[in-house]
Design a protein that fits this description.
single chain, about 300 residues, alpha/beta, TIM Barrel, 10 helices, 8 strands
């Protein structure tokens, strides 16, 4: 079901949500997209998501600690700590990962959890908020400044409008809490209601917080009659807090990586372009290959 476009794609990057100027970090007043806070020169850094090695992590053949060391080996600048494979949420364990990363000169591009915000009952939404707060606390202990969350898929009988309403409610509460820790919540354009830029931008517009952003996966947007995937990526870049990279769209069509990097550079994006490998080759082969492409493009388009 389509939502009203309300000009989100047409005006992305120049939306004025209120007449107020600047940012109020306790009760965010969004006069411009988050990109307005950044200097205009792009700074693009190659990263790698733990999810790229899910084949090994899910079987216990790799741990989050050994993933950090693998990041050193393949030469990534930062690592994204997908939370599915944490041994625990205990402070001592998270502090150990943080220390290991520091000793090896590897910053965290962020962390990621699987909490879904499309919840049809008030009780379930309250539980999602509690879970997000727990993951924010864990991310804080880890020493990262970004946490990926999901919107989610609509339950049977629900409308897209209802789904967006639920996400806005949960993400507002979650980002109010994450703001107290200096942590950004990035909702991913994953399968479900956020596979259109319209929906992603409406959520940003309504949550209206510098701590609520888009974890922009370049592979997932579903083309519409008027907007292809590239146009939707471009529309969301001003709100991107972190980026997931593959070299094919979900339908198997190769991605013009140079075109994507050029859009990010032109928008003055500053942040990580993190490999999230799902190819057919073994990750030990496929991840470094894709990372080499990312490194070259970051070097080509970044000013630092």
């Amino acid at each position: 079901m389509k939502i009203a476009r309300r000009g989100f794609l047409k005006t992305a990057g120049t939306i004025a949500v209120t007449a107020g100027a600047g940012w109020n970090l306790s009760h965010a007043v969004l006069a411009e997209p988050p990109s307005a806070l950044r200097a205009k020169d792009p700074r693009l850094f190659p990263g790698c998501c733990a999810y790229s090695y899910r084949k090994y992590l899910s079987k216990g053949q790799m741990t989050m600690a050994s993933f950090i060391l693998e990041g050193v080996k393949i030469g990534t600048v930062g690592v994204d700590m997908t939370g599915y494979w944490y041994k625990s949420m205990e402070p001592a364990y998270l502090a150990g990962l943080r220390h290991l990363a520091y000793e090896n000169g590897v910053p965290f591009s962020g962390a990621a959890c699987g909490v879904s915000m499309v919840q049809p009952t008030r009780q379930k939404r309250a539980r999602a908020i509690r879970e997000i707060k727990q993951w924010v606390d864990a991310t804080d202990r880890l020493g990262a400044s970004h946490l990926r969350v999901f919107a989610g898929k609509l339950p049977p009988g629900a409308t897209l409008k209802q789904g967006i309403d639920w996400v806005v409610e949960v993400m507002k509460a979650g980002s109010d809490y994450s703001a107290t820790k200096g942590i950004i919540l990035g909702v991913e354009d994953h399968s479900g209601i956020t596979q259109s830029a319209d929906a992603c931008l409406e959520i940003m517009h309504r949550v209206n917080s510098p701590y609520a952003r888009i974890n922009l996966d370049i592979t997932h947007f579903i083309p519409t009659p008027t907007q292809d995937a590239y146009a939707q990526i471009k529309a969301c870049i001003p709100y991107a807090s972190h980026t997931h990279i593959r070299d094919v769209f979900d339908d198997g069509t190769p991605i013009d990586m140079d075109r994507v990097w050029r859009m990010f550079a032109e928008a003055g994006y500053r942040g990580f372009m993190s490999v999230e490998y799902e190819g057919k080759e073994d990750p030990m082969v496929g991840v470094p290959k894709l990372l080499d492409k990312v490194k070259a493009l970051c070097q080509k388009y970044s000013t630092a």
